[in-house]
Amino acid sequence: MRADVPVAPDAPLTRGARSRLATRGKLIEAAHSLMAEKGFEQCTIEEITRRADVGFGSFYNHFESKDDIARAVYSARAGEIGLITDEISSREPDKAVAISYVQRMFLTRAVHDPVWGRFIVRAQDSQRQMNETFVVRAADDIGAGVEQKRFSIRCVETAANITIAALISGMSRILDGGPSEQITAETIDCLMRLYGIEPQEAARLANLPLPDYVSANFSLPAA
Fold first, then answer.
1. Which residues have C-beta within 8 Å of that of residue 103, sequence separation ≥ 6?
2. What is the pLDDT, as a whole number, of residue 14?
3. CA–CA–CA angle 161, 214, 98 (5° rounding)
4. Where along the sequence lies the DNA-binding region (predicted)?
5. Is the Cβ–Cβ distance between 120 and 172 less than 8 Å?
6. Position 223 pLDDT exceeds 90
7. Structural domain boundaries enclosing 23
8. Number of structural domains, the chain?
């Protein structure tokens, strides 16, 4: 195709482009499952390509390294979770309720999508990646809760970082076989108290079921 011939923005992808996208998707899914099963360090590029059923050399047409594909795996799942988080935050005017739903959604997702959960728990630099993706959202919602006088906490950014660490810890305990509902409720209860919520109200928030719009639209079960 001549360089001076414009391509319509809605032109269909070429067969080659579709093939490259399909191969990249297979590599990401293979890496996702292997890293969840074995951890980042024990997973090799050869194993990823074998599980994806693509040639070893094809890997380097899409990714520079194992670190590179790990970032792609995380980004693919984090984008989906981010959409759910943003939807909850936009729908729920009470930020204490919104945050309790977001936290329950994270921990529920670990139960019903254990590959995602194990990837977050076992991936290299998982907390740093979680912080980069979600700590701003958490800080914004906690700050909004302070403005509503629902929360009485001064160190909003520190609270947001502690929240991410607590959610990763809760995921790990659940995936190791701990009682999922108990761990979920206790984690949310502790975090609500951290934000300054009174114990009785913290317990109520910790046991709120996920709303229908989350469970229905994002394939997550209500509690």
1. 163, 167, 184, 187, 188, 191
2. 85
3. 40
4. 44-63
5. no
6. no
7. 15-63
8. 2
Report the distance separating Cα 217 and Cα 223, nearest Å.
15
- 155 falls within a domain: yes
Q: What is the pTM of this model?
A: 0.73
SS (H, E, C) 139-160: HHHHHHHHHCCCCCCCCHHHHH
**Residue with the larger pLDDT of the pair 169 and 77:** 169
Q: Examine the domain organization and report whether 55 and 83 are in the same domain.
A: no
21 and 111 part of one domain: no
Residue 28 to residues 25, 51, 74, 77, 189, Cα–Cα distance (Å): 5, 10, 9, 11, 35
Alpha-helical regions (H) of the chain: 15-38, 45-52, 66-91, 95-112, 114-122, 126-147, 156-175, 180-194, 199-206, 212-217
Average pLDDT value for residue range 8-26: 76
**39 in the same domain as 97:** no
CA 54 to chain centre: 27
* 8 Å CB contact between 110 and 116: yes
Name the token pair of 137: 């959202």
User: What is the structure's pLDDT at 5?
Assistant: 44
How far is residue 182's CA from residue 207's CA, in Å, rounded to a whole number?
Answer: 10
> Could you tell me where the DSSP H helices lie in 92-155?
95-112, 114-122, 126-147
The radius of gyration of the chain from alpha carbons, rounded to an integer in Å, stands at 20
